[in-house]
Amino acid sequence: MTRYRNVALFVFLAAVWGAAFMAIKAGLGTPTDPGGFFDAPVLFAAIRYDVAGVLMLAYAAYATDQLVPRGRDEWATVAVGSVFIMAGYHALLFVGETDPAVTSAAAAVIVSLSPLLTTAFARAFLPSERLTAVGVVGLLLGLVGVVVLSNPDPNDLLAGGAVAKLLVFGAAASFALGSVLTRRIDADLPIETMEAWTMLGGAALMHALSVGIGESVSAVRWTTDAVLAVGYLSVVASALGFLVYFVLLERLGPIEINLVSYVAPVFAALTGWAFLGELPTRYTVVGFVVIFAGFLLLKRESIRAEMPRLRGRDTSETRD
After folding, report:
1. Each residue of 27-76: pLDDT tens digit?
2. pTM value?
3. Secondary structure (3-state) at 30
4. Fewer CB within 10 A of the end CB, N or C, for the chain?
């Protein structure tokens, strides 16, 4: 029964995080159907993590015995996470999704590059490790997948959402780099506490960025869709989603939980179609296949090493 609960939680997490791309798109709106925050995407992202950060801080107070980071390493971890994982990732993602050409599914597929990019950054920051020839091919396949998905017009590289999709790619790269740097610091800080302060720090940075680029609170239209989008992203996708993620990370390990990134685009496409009328293009599908092939090449050794443990767990599990 434990295995079935894990599968159910895995599918739930993929659905919740996949639908988040649709919720972002719905909150931002489009030029022909403006939503609550079309004129202030960075402010939208900041408000999302104002709420999520407070909720996660309350959970950290309940679940851990350390509510505030201590020492230089712990605060450095929070600072890196705030800059790269929260502010950098979400500001670029939300701005990229303002382009009508960037559908919910397209954004989710590009973001699914994060595990692949994380591996590449980890190798770059660890001099003792180098990518093999097959690993380099895997990394290049991932980049080719983004090019295929972007489908740029050689005669007009600024058309067809190519720049917006590159912004989303930059978001995935920012998240991957932040993940590697926080692991490199390796501070002994409860993950719930780290997430809470990282969310709040990232929200503060995005508020500052929002002001700096001229976004105004007056641009916010608190429509029903806007309230629903913020509520879903803050409570369900962020607070509840990360709690499920922590449980699965402990039960399944990093290899299997990384696969959430490759299931989420399915739900992004389904919810984008159901709520926004978005239809994935053939470039989205082909780009996803190429990116996933790159992931399998880069993670081939880890996946091979994981298989005996998975088979052993399958045969040794008992009903409970």
Report:
1. 886 544 555 556 789 999 999 999 999 999 999 999 999 999 999 999 99
2. 0.84
3. strand
4. C
Q: How far is CA 131 from CA 127, 137, 169, 202, 298, in A?
A: 11, 9, 21, 32, 9
> How distant, in Å, are the alpha carbons of 4, 7, 189, 311 from that of 1?
5, 10, 32, 16
Residues of the chain below pLDDT 50: 31-32, 156-157, 315, 317-320
Quick check: 207 and 17 in contact, CB under 8 A? no
Chain position carrying tokens 């929200």: 203
Q: Where are the alpha helices (DSSP H) in 34-161?
A: 41-63, 71-80, 89-96, 104-111, 114-125, 133-150
User: Rounded to whole angstroms, how far apart are CA atoms 128 and 178?
Assistant: 20
Beta-strand ranges (E) seen in the chain are: 29-30, 33-34
Pairing verdict, β 29-30 and 33-34: antiparallel
Tokens representing 215 are 């976004």
How many helices (H) and strands (E) the chain has is answered by 15, 2
Hey, how many other C-beta atoms are within 10 angstroms of the C-beta on 186?
Answer: 9
